[in-house]
Amino acid sequence: MKILFLDVDGVLNSIQSVIMYNRKHKGTPKEEWRPYDDFCPISVSNLQFIMESCPDVNIVVSSTWRMGGLEKMQKILKDIANIDTSRVIDITPVMRGVQRGIEIQAWLDANATVPEGSILMPKLTVEEFVIVDDDSDMAHLTESKLVQTDNDLGLTLKNAREIIKRFGGNTDGW
């Protein structure tokens, strides 16, 4: 299985999309704001591009947004990006005071293939993974696994192409 560890803030929304949303809704009472309107439509489209180009990739949410639970994240990604909820398979554990890369490694350790002959059953085999995040707190995973976004811009087409390439997908023509 191929896994995209997905952050939200600085990836699907950005400083520029939040500023635009706040200007657009200036004077509108907060209770009238629609959820997720501040997500950047270009960043969301780039996530869709990744998922369409890599049909064997599933998402594990590593964002602080995961604290609302898996079902909420499945609904959000379905609502904003039309991501099939069956492809949003899990959230990383919340481990206070550690780098996000340690939480990702804990998820990988808990879901890795169990050695042959073990009485434990593996949940799944992770063949490849990529982390997309605007932060670099990925511990030992930074160099080889992180595609870092700029929180001013969010997930750009260049970032999406890099992720697709790492998963062995094709971006010809785009």
Give the low-confidence spans: none
How many domains? The number is 1
Mean pLDDT: 88
Name the CATH superfamily assignment. HAD superfamily/HAD-like
Read across the widest sheet, the strand sequence of neighbours is 3-2-1-4-5
Enumerate how many helices there are, as a single number.
6
Please provide the ordered H/E string of secondary-structure elements.
EHHEHEHEHEH
CATH class: Alpha Beta
Termini separation comes to 25 Å
User: What's the CATH topology label?
Assistant: Rossmann fold
What's the helical proportion of residues? 25-40%
* Shape field: globular
Describe this structure in words.
The structure is a single chain. The chain has 174 residues and is an alpha/beta fold. It has a single domain, classed as Rossmann fold. Helix content is 35%, strand content 13%. The protein has a five-stranded parallel sheet with strand order 3-2-1-4-5. Helix 2 (41-53) packs parallel to helix 6 (157-166). The protein is globular, with a radius of gyration of 17 Å. 34% of the residues are buried. The mean pLDDT is 88.
Task: Report a brief summary of the structure.
The chain is of the alpha/beta class and 174 residues long.
Task: Give the tags.
13% strand, Rossmann fold, alpha/beta, 174 residues, globular, 6 helices, single chain
List the helices and strands and how they pair.
Layout: E1 2-6, H1 15-24, H2 41-53, E2 57-61, H3 70-81, E3 88-91, H4 100-111, E4 128-133, H5 142-145, E5 146-148, H6 157-166
Parallel strand pairs: 1-2, 1-4, 2-3, 4-5
